[in-house]
Each structure stands twice: as structure tokens, then as C-alpha cells.
Amino acid sequence: MGSTKENSKPEATRIVLVDDHPVVREGLAENINRESDLTVCAQAEDHREALKAIETTKPELVVVDLMLKGSSGIELIKDIHARWPRLLILVVSMHDETLYAERVLRAGAHGYITKQQATRDILLAIRRVLAGGIYLNERTASSVLARLASKSQAVNDSITDLLADRELQVFELTGRGLSTREIGAQLHIDVKTVDTYRARIREKLNLKTSSELLQLAIRWNKDHGLGMD
Q1: Share of the chain above pLDDT 70, in %
Q2: Which of 19, 31, 83, 176 has the fewest C-beta atoms under 10 angstroms from its C-beta?
Q3: Tell me: the pLDDT tens digits for 203-229?
Q4: Do 94 and 200 belong together in one domain?
């Protein structure tokens, strides 16, 4: 379960952490709280807890993972941005940022960094966003800028643009070789819901069989530098 605490550093910038893995949350909180000017004022593991924590503690920044119990982090970002449009949001996720960076920025986030990065880089990302900037790594920033600048590119025909947020997550995990049950466990949804998403994906991509979906997902992951687990 998430938690809320009193701010022990009155002048420090207040941060809410949203991640469904307690060990990850606690580790990141410990590193943030070592900084004299930053403090984690609350932690949450799902959409509902996150909104309650934000309402209660009124932070300056929310750090969000993309995988949450019962919903995606992108859905939470959209909700936060709609309710508190000036609240800063940074995504810290295990997923490759080249796949999701543009989506989270469109949803209202101000940066994206992977959990694989060093603690100093995550702290740098936090400070960049708090200073009013956008944080992306150099490779991702170049890719996003090139994409936004190329108006003639048929972006609506790409898989990334055709699929909704949750559908893209299911598609990616399918390409990693995960079974329906494994995908459901990772996304905190039931097997029937995974099957529904896969049916929608096949329809949108004009695929007739699950085998065609799997082959395309594997090839797409490979093209994006994502191998099978």
C-alpha cells in the first residue's frame, strides 16, 4: 500500500512517487530523501491512491511508472494533467523510452527516464523537470523532434499511432514472448481482458490470426531494439 508522511524538511520540494513495486518505491524514496532540498511526501501503488495522495499532500512533482495495478501510468498522467494542469510529472519506467516518450509528453508529462539509469541521472531528470525543462535522453529527444518536425511523414499509419496506450503495451509484451497469463500478471489485468486487447489489436492491424499478431509483434520489437525476454 502507498503511504503519506509529514514533510520533515519544510523548505524542500515535495514529491509523490507512484509505482506498484514497494521495493522500487522505497529505494527511489531513500535516494531522493538524501537530497537536502527534496522530500518524498507520499507514495502510491495505483491510480486511486495516487490521486488521493496528490490531493492530500499537494506536491510540486509526481514521479510515475507506466505499469500500475488496474490501469496504465499514461491514463494516470492524463487524469493528473486534467485535474492539476500545472503539476509537474516525470515518468520513471522499465520500458524503452523510444516507444513511449512521445505518448507521455502528449498526455501531460514533462520527462521520461528508464529505471536502468543511474540514481544521479534520475535525480538530474527530477531537477530538470522542476526547473521547468523537459527531460529526455539525447537519442530519444532527437527522435521525437524529428518526428514532430516531419509533417509529411505518414505517422498515422504506424503501429505506434494506431494502437491505444494499453494496446501498445500488450503488443510489446506479446512480442517479448509472454503468454496471455504472463501479460495479465504484468499489467494487473485478467486473461479475458488481455484477449480483448489482442482482438482489438488484430482488428486495427488487419491481422487474421494470433500467429500473425505474434510474428508482427516479434518483428516490431526487434526493429525497436527490444528482444524476447
Answers
A1: 85
A2: 83
A3: 888 888 888 888 888 888 777 666 555
A4: no
